[in-house]
Design goal:
Blueprint lengths: L1 H13 L5 H10 L1 H4 L2 H11 L5 H14 L3 H17 L2
Helix pairs in contact: 1-4, 5-6
């Protein structure tokens, strides 16, 4: 299910179907898909966003902490480290 959604988002982004605002909204609504480096990087490139994985994961970490979602917080924290270490 997640991979089908990811595939659809990536296909639409590659076809230029999203504005930057729409792309940001998708990123914020689908963190389980885009906290992974590869889908994030492809989506970011195809949608024209100027955002690092580290910055994106930091925002998701803050949201997860506010919502007391420990699982999402851990995923975002790991993505934040990967983004910082790989400069993605």
């Amino acid at each position: 299910m997640v991979s089908d959604m990811m595939q659809q988002y990536l296909m639409n982004a590659s076809q230029g179907k999203y504005t930057k605002e729409q792309a940001m909204k998708i990123l914020m609504n689908e963190p389980t898909i885009f906290l992974e480096p590869l889908p994030f990087t492809i989506f970011k490139h195809d949608s024209g966003l100027n955002l690092s994985l580290h910055d994106y994961a930091t925002v998701i970490m803050k949201q997860a902490k506010q919502k007391q979602n420990q699982k999402m917080f851990r995923l975002a924290k790991d993505a934040c480290e990967i983004g910082r270490n790989l400069d993605i």
